[in-house]
Design brief:
CATH superfamily of the largest domain: Medium-chain alcohol dehydrogenases, catalytic domain
CATH topology of the largest domain: Quinone Oxidoreductase, Chain A, domain 1
CATH class of the largest domain: Alpha Beta
Radius of gyration: 20 Å
Number of domains: 2
GO cellular component, one term: cytoplasm
Domain Alcohol dehydrogenase-like C-terminal: 174-302
Subunit structure: Homotetramer.
Strand content: 25-35%
Pathway: Amino-acid degradation; L-threonine degradation via oxydo-reductase pathway; glycine from L-threonine: step 1/2
Largest sheet: 7 strands, mixed
Number of strands: 18
Pfam families: ADH_N, ADH_zinc_N
Structural class: alpha/beta
Helix content: 25-40%
């Protein structure tokens, strides 16, 4: 089969032939239909310091995918051949304290497909059947392929109650925009999103954000004035990893405000903890998805009318992977999808 492989320790990827993975007990083989490019994939393709310290070549990369189950292993009862599925790419041990307590998203022994073990940028991927999410209601393969990042957005946005709240989202990448859409759908009063890319802010505006703001030209005080806000933001969703964005968010929160932080900083951040203490702010780190409550929430959100297809702005065949990665790296569009159907 064809697969996109990190062949050696260094920049670049190679589209090459590898063996179709064998299905063991408790596993299922999925024929991949479409895949999404994640920031993690960009790190691995570029072979930066993070990739060099976390990835061992050779490796089939990729973890955002949708497909159809074509084979099941011994003792598999939770999926069937023909099921349309997405995959939870975090494989947990099932034995640590958090796993045994039902908090699998906090597993200390988590391994990731496409990072520690062979992933989904391939014609077929094998993984534990318990990590597959069966789409019981009709859904396009493109939207199903972005359930992983959609889950990050849902996990972040629904960490704190949204009904009637004023929400600030910093970072209008695909996950930031998805989080803003979820916030609005969950009943937020005002949703403001900030970014330095006017193209992404334009996309966010088209997808229903109340106010998209470039901090180079407008301030958060402008947002307060335009929206008639009398106090600061109730909920903050930090999706950018930017020190400036986080500090600005902390300064703009109301007393008792709550911040969910998904954006991963590249270095340590200095913040004003006096404001955090005196204004009694809550800052909570978010990683991945809750297994599998977030997945349930994702499906219900779509069934209740949330349409996330608009966040997908670019589609390529897998043979055009270099152009697809360049587009994703540009930082100006939404989600980039690669097609693996023959």
């Amino acid at each position: 089969m064809k697969a996109l492989v990190k062949r050696t320790a260094g920049p670049g990827l190679e589209l090459t032939d590898v063996d179709v993975p064998q299905v063991g007990p408790g596993e299922a083989l999925v024929q991949v239909k479409q895949t999404g490019i994640c920031g993690t994939d960009l790190h691995i393709e570029a072979w930066d310091d993070w990739a060099a310290s976390h990835v061992r070549a050779p490796l089939v990369v990729g973890h955002e995918f949708s497909g159809v189950v074509v084979e099941i292993g011994e003792s598999v009862t939770d999926v069937s051949v023909g099921d349309v599925v997405s995959g939870e790419g975090h494989l947990t041990c099932g034995r640590c304290r958090n796993c045994r307590a039902g908090r699998r998203h906090l597993c200390i022994n988590t391994r990731g497909i496409g990072v520690q073990i062979d992933g989904a940028f391939a014609e077929y991927v094998a993984m534990p059947s318990g990590n597959l999410w069966v789409h019981e209601h009709p859904i396009g393969f493109d939207v199903a392929a972005i359930f992983d990042p959609f889950g990050n957005a849902v996990h972040t946005a629904l960490t704190f109650p949204m009904l009637g709240e004023d929400v600030l989202v910093t970072g209008a990448g695909p996950i930031g925009i998805l989080a803003a859409m979820v916030s609005h759908h969950a009943g937020a009063r005002n949703v403001v999103i900030t970014d330095l890319s006017d193209q992404r802010l334009e996309l966010a505006s088209r997808l229903g954000v109340d106010l998209a703001l470039n901090p180079r030209t407008r301030t958060l005080q402008d947002a307060h004035d335009q929206l008639g806000m009398k106090e600061g933001f109730d909920v903050g969703l930090e999706m950018s990893g930017s020190p400036v964005a986080l500090r600005g968010m902390i300064a703009s929160m109301t007393h008792g405000g709550r911040i969910a932080m998904l954006g991963l900083p590249s270095d340590e951040i200095s913040i004003d903890f006096a404001t955090v203490v005196l204004n009694m702010l809550t800052i909570k780190g978010i990683y991945g998805r809750e297994m599998f409550e977030t997945w349930y929430a994702m499906s219900v959100l779509l069934q209740s009318g949330l349409d996330i297809s608009g966040v997908i702005t670019d589609r390529f065949d897998h043979t055009e992977y270099e152009q697809a990665f360049a587009t994703a790296r540009s930082g100006h569009g939404g989600k980039v999808i690669m097609n693996w159907e023959k």
